[in-house]
Design goal:
Blueprint (H helix, E strand, L loop, with lengths): L9 E7 L7 E5 L4 E5 L9 E7 L29
Antiparallel strand pairs: 1-4, 2-3
Length: 82
């Protein structure tokens, strides 16, 4: 997107495959709770990124970079047996 002064010339939409059958987590943001999909281990993240120019706007680009930001964590469960 080139013009921050006049607003974005397009909207971006990320449509993930099989999202309705995936487990979701409720994540608290500043002013709301979001339901976000959970990916574990070596699961592939697949989908389509749609670039939708706003009506009457022209969009020129040399490619699109999509970065997924998340959290990598490991749950350690210890069972002590005496």
């Amino acid at each position: 997107m080139q013009s921050f002064l006049f607003g974005s010339p397009c909207t971006l939409e990320l449509v993930l495959d099989n999202i309705e059958n995936r487990k979701h987590l409720d994540i608290q943001t500043d002013n709301a709770t979001e339901k976000l999909p959970l990916y574990i281990g070596n699961e592939s993240v697949k989908g389509v990124a749609k670039v939708l120019p706003k009506e009457g706007k022209k969009l020129e680009h040399q490619g699109i970079v999509l970065e997924l930001i998340g959290q990598i964590g490991k749950t350690n469960t210890f069972h002590l047996h005496y």
